[in-house]
Amino acid sequence: MKKIDWKAIAPYIVIPLIFVLCISIYATMGDTQRDKKQYYEIVDLFEDNEVSEYTLNLASGSLEYKLFGDDDTTYKYTVPNVSMFVDDIHDSVVEYNKQNPDNQIKMDYKSGNSGSWLVSLLPTVVIMIVLTVIMLLMFRKMNQSFQNENNRTLSFGKARVKDANDGKQKKTFDDVAGADEEKEELEEIVEFLKNPSAFNALGARIPKGVLLVGPPGTGKTLLAKAVAGEAGVPFFSISGSDFVEMYVGVGASRVRDLFDQAKKNSPSIIFIDEIDAVGRHRGAGMGGGHDEREQTLNQLLVEMDGFGENQGVIVIAATNRPDILDPALLRPGRFDRQVTVSYPDIDGREAILKVHAKRKPLGPDVDLRSIASQTVGFTGADLENLLNEAALLAARRKKKAITMPDIEEAAMKVLVGTEKKSHRMTERDKKITAYHEAGHAVTSYYLEHKDPVTHISIVPRGMAGGFTMYQPEKDEMHLMKSRMLDDIVGLLGGRVAEKIIFNDISTGASNDIERASDTARKMITKYGMSEKLGPITFGTGNDEVFLGKDYNHMRNYSEAVACEIDEEVEKIILKAYDRTESILNEHIDKLHAVAKALVEREKIDAEQFKILMEGGTLPPYEPKSEKAENKTETVEKDKPSAVDDKNADEAVKDLEDNFNDEKKYLTKDVASEAEKEVDSDEKKNSSDETGKEN
């Protein structure tokens, strides 16, 4: 039989009981009022013939009476001496009744205890019982809270460790792909834990600590979980932030408790994730040397350096900020070995995709090698998220398997954002966006060191109104100066195209300019690529107050050098702007062709872009059925007027006429005339839209 949980049902019993009790008390009281008069005042009421009726209990002395002219109110009074009271009022009442036979005072004398005292006492008894129950429940709850608080207080200095080998499915090295060298480093540690005699026979000492270093998402924590699954020894996992509390001494206490538990269960592994939360440079930030974080770090240093020769406790830590760790933490004897977990290459990405695709049904058109080649710079976490997004898209489309279009759409969603199909752009915005993206694409096509264009779109995604996507042909370890200069030229393509076509500029190039300026400044200050300033690095890089070593901004160059740096950055940007302008003016026909196709189709893939750049023409555009249905639904929802469709058709027709005219004449003067025609078309469309609004 299931035990009743009285704690859960107590409120549902007590609260209705109190409610019923209050109603009963109110009903019992009615219009009765307890009279606060003195005894002689009550007697005077009877002698003055003001009482119309009364009831007297001879046993309890309870008197209830009403007054003439106020029959709705019943007054109560407890007579101290019943016999004396009867003697005092009896004569006056009898005399009044004789004189007024038609309006006599009604008298009622009750002898003995008729049980009314029980009725009068019942509300008080019930109230006492309810209050007693409530108090007992409150005291019980407080006692439990006090006991829990004591338990928390006693365990406050205990390490909040998790055993990765308990309950959940274990990870192994087979689940880790794209990190073969890193696995070899850690397999050595696992082998030592399984068979230490082979190492001890040769006098070898296993590293006491291994620091996993790498960008976020490259698989540092996954490698640690794989070590736990492969080693088959107790694995204590804790985060660096778990050591730090507001109370002094708690962090150091937890460090001691963590290592005590590991020593009792040796051989064992301790894994500290995000160790930079506790292992930062001592003396950094605003706390100075008295920071609780530093006391925790000191205790960690002592524990790691205090191991015996064969205690079998190995510390593995992970961080993506090794530059801010205290040097004492990185010396031999503590973290002897650093394992760098970097971005996977194309083979690594393919292996990672195979691991994550094991439990996902893939269509026959899915080529994991092709996906790996298109995802340069993706980490393992990015690739896992890519396949998961593709699976969600396939499920949303009622498919039984993940196809290549699902993966391509998921890649764009991860990189750029969700496509905003319901967002309706005006013809003016569509033209500006089309020429902007066409400027990027056409400029990049004629740059020697720029990656090929794979996709162009003017459909808004995320924060972008449009985008141009490139695909690196191979993984590159080194970034050349010529490549960086070409990147700047490609970034300026959108701004220059707007200036050439519309003789005006928009805010759409703000991010492009920011990235171009940042690249140019890094070329000067970080990579030493300035011919004037030479191969010198400017700036210390200690800009983060609470992450770095310093709590103020520093730079190691003068104001005069800062001016020269600004001049060099400006020179690079302006020179790139002139190159971009020259490319687009020379290939203005290609710019118009790509922009026209974007206005018509909204998206262009690599093959279509190549046809346009080689002077070919695309086949007539036929919208896909699904896209047409979505467009029809949007039109029905918004219900635009017929004038909108007419203006859109006229705008496309005007753009085609401009393109055909400019294709015949490629002189600068004719190009200027084309600019004027486009500007006049813009004014015409703007005036039409203003007329519709009015």
Question: Do you know the CATH topology of one domain?
Answer: Methane Monooxygenase Hydroxylase, Chain G, domain 1
User: What is the strand content?
Assistant: 5-15%
Mean pLDDT: 77
Structural class: alpha/beta
Q: Determine the number of helices (DSSP H or I, runs of at least 4 residues).
A: 24
Which segments are poorly predicted (pLDDT under 50) over 5 or more consecutive residues? 541-551, 626-653, 658-694
**CATH homologous superfamily of one domain?**
Peptidase M41
Q: Give the name of the CATH architecture of one domain.
A: Up-down Bundle
Strand order of the largest sheet: 6-8-9-10-7-11
What's the level 1 CATH class of one domain?
Mainly Alpha
Feature tags:
Signal recognition particle alu RNA binding heterodimer, srp9/1; Rossmann fold; six-stranded mixed sheet; 10% strand
Structure overview:
A six-stranded mixed β-sheet has the order 6-8-9-10-7-11. It has a five-stranded mixed β-sheet with strand order 1-4-3-2-5, with no helix packed on it. It starts with 5 loop residues before the first helix and ends with a helix. The longest helix is centred in the first third of the chain and has 39 residues, at 116-154. It is elongated. Among the domains are: 39-110, Signal recognition particle alu RNA binding heterodimer, srp9/1, CATH 3.30.720; 173-282 and 290-340, P-loop containing nucleotide triphosphate hydrolases (Rossmann fold); 346-416, Helicase, Ruva Protein, domain 3 (Orthogonal Bundle), CATH 1.10.8; 427-542 and 554-614, Methane Monooxygenase Hydroxylase, Chain G, domain 1. Residues 541-551, 626-653 and 658-694 have low confidence and may be disordered. By secondary structure, it is an alpha/beta fold. The protein contains 24 helices and 14 strands. It has helices at residues 6-29, 39-47, 82-99, 116-154, 180-194, 196-200, 220-231, 250-264, 292-305, 327-330, 346-356, 368-374, 380-396, 404-415, 427-445, 481-491, 493-502, 510-525, 559-586, 588-601, 606-613, 625-638, 642-664, 668-693; strands at residues 32-34, 51-57, 62-67, 70-78, 106-110, 162-163, 209-213, 235-239, 268-273, 313-319, 337-340, 453-457, 467-470, 603-605. The relative contact order is 0.05.
